[in-house]
């Protein structure tokens, strides 16, 4: 878990979930994974990455319409909200870094996960499905809940992520072009 800043501490360093430490400048805007000295690849997400990195456009639109945020700084559902859900579910596996005071890095927030970018993608999809199921359960419509649950029984998160990543071509130089 990320440590609170202490006077005299290095605000330009980030302790990763594996215990390694890196300079925050090593994280660049195009990075999706960090190949760590620990031998593992860690998923990297920044506030400037669109939520469409993980979810189709139409679903992001639905989430933005359905979810009311309480943040004045981020009034619209976006990537920080997705990573907040991940951080809440996996507090020991994700560290965050507030770089809002550091104009040299190009991002305001960064998250680094103990798992690789593909596993993070699966985690995001799994948590959004749980969020959707919770929302449907509050609709007081047993038929809608039953239909949703039936659809989810047939939904393969791993296959969805595989197809979505291939479609978005996350290895391309600019996957959002």
From TrEMBL:
Pfam family, one: DUF5815
The organism's place on the tree of life at top rank: Archaea
InterPro entries in UniProt: DUF5815
Protein name per the record: Uncharacterized protein
Species of origin: Halorubrum tebenquichense DSM 14210
Lineage: Archaea, Methanobacteriati, Methanobacteriota, Stenosarchaea group, Halobacteria
């Amino acid at each position: 878990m990320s440590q609170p800043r202490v006077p005299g501490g290095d605000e330009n360093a980030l302790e990763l979930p594996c215990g390694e430490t890196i300079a925050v400048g090593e994280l660049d805007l195009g990075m999706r994974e960090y190949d760590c000295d620990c031998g593992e690849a860690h998923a990297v997400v920044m506030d400037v990455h669109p939520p469409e990195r993980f979810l189709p456009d139409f679903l992001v639109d639905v989430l933005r319409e359905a979810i009311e945020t309480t943040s004045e700084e981020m009034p619209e559902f976006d990537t920080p909200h997705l990573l907040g859900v991940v951080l809440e579910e996996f507090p020991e596996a994700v560290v965050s870094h507030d770089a809002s005071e550091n104009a040299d890095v190009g991002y305001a927030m960064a998250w680094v996960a103990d798992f690789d970018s593909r596993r993070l993608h699966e985690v995001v999809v799994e948590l959004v499905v749980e969020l959707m199921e919770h929302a449907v359960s509050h609709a007081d419509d047993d038929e809608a809940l039953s239909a949703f649950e039936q659809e989810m029984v047939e939904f393969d998160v791993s296959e969805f992520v595989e197809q979505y990543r291939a479609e978005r071509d996350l290895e391309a130089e600019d996957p959002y072009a």
